[in-house]
Design a protein that fits this description.
It is globular, with a radius of gyration of 18 Å. The longest helix is centred in the middle third of the chain and has 29 residues, at 125-153. The protein has one domain: 3-Layer(aba) Sandwich (Rossmann fold), CATH 3.40.50. The protein has helices at 22-32, 61-69, 85-99, 125-153, 174-194, 216-225, 229-243, 252-263; strands at residues 10-13, 36-41, 75-79, 104-107, 156-161, 199-206, 274-277. A 7-stranded parallel beta sheet has the order 3-2-1-4-5-6-7, sandwiched between helices. The two termini are 26 Å apart. The protein is α/β, with parallel strands linked by helices.
């Protein structure tokens, strides 16, 4: 891929307001490649901000938008609650109206983990439903509404951010794993439905990523241990690194590079695939 290989393309990325997240890294990668960007996130309460953002001047998607524009491309921001189907339809219409088209959709947003980390017999139905609303249904609805725009314009690219948890179940993660498994199934079915329209649909399945995203579970355990969330998170990253064949976790920009490849013309004959990026932790 050359550095301007997405020039003239319009890309929409959900969940792109995190300072260290995959969404921000993808927006910056696409901008470097010449695409004009639309990014979305939801209004997060102060208590739902991770340490790299809490108490700083970080302003979510507006801060990301400033970084994107500094790279010489346009960036349109939209706040959207992805648990609401009407807001998702409004989001897609807003971006399509603003730019005239949507060439690339990256379904990156995910539910904040932690409240799901209980045995399946103790899992609250409301938590289960929330994880499916954000991790699965929102991906479906974004694909549905953006897919219609792409059909009308003659093609497009959809990249879903799944997870290692979409390939392998784990204890205390029933809601997260099930909702991410659903993304892989949706990716395959949508790929077949949309292939005749020149639209590819693929998924990226990261393992551990040093994304700085908030985890309610980590916050609670840090409080129990009497350490800062940053310090506890460092311990988590170290444990994940030791469990990886490559001895580390991924960085967000490494995931973004794979997303960018799948969004480029070099991946025109790739569809329905779910690519691992986990340092060798899982091979299927």
């Amino acid at each position: 891929m050359n550095e301007r290989s997405l020039k003239g393309k319009i890309a929409l990325i959900t969940g792109a307001g995190g300072k260290q997240g995959i969404g921000r890294a993808t927006a910056l990668k696409f901008a470097e490649m010449g695409a004009d960007i639309a990014i979305t996130d939801f209004h997060r309460a102060p208590e739902d901000l991770p340490p790299p953002e809490a108490g700083t001047d970080w302003r979510g998607v507006e801060s990301v938008a400033e970084e994107v524009r500094a790279l010489g491309v346009q960036c349109h921001t939209v706040m959207c609650d992805l648990s609401q189907g009407t807001e998702i339809e409004r989001l897609i219409d807003d971006v399509a109206d603003h730019y005239g088209r949507i060439d690339i959709l990256v379904n990156n947003a995910r539910a904040i983990i932690g409240r799901d980390r209980v045995p399946v017999t103790e899992l609250d139905e409301a938590v289960w439903n929330h994880f499916f609303a954000i991790n699965s249904t929102a991906v479906f609805l974004c694909t549905k509404f953006a897919g219609r725009k792409m059909i009308a314009q003659g093609g497009g690219k959809i990249v879903n951010i799944a997870s290692l948890a979409s390939k392998r179940g784990a204890a205390l993660q029933a809601a997260y794993c099930a909702s991410k498994f659903a993304v892989v199934g949706l990716t395959q079915s949508a790929a077949v439905d949309l292939a005749k329209h020149g639209i590819t649909v693929n998924a990226v399945c990261p393992g551990g990523v040093d994304s700085g995203r908030l985890s309610y579970e980590e916050r609670d355990k840090a409080e129990e241990a009497g350490v800062s969330l940053d310090a506890y998170r460092a311990q988590v990253i170290e444990r994940m690194s030791q469990a990886s064949p490559m001895g580390r976790v991924a960085q967000s920009d490494e995931v973004a590079s794979l997303v960018a490849f799948l969004a480029s013309d070099e991946a025109n004959f790739i569809t329905g695939q779910s690519y691992n990026i986990n340092g060798g932790a899982v091979f299927h």
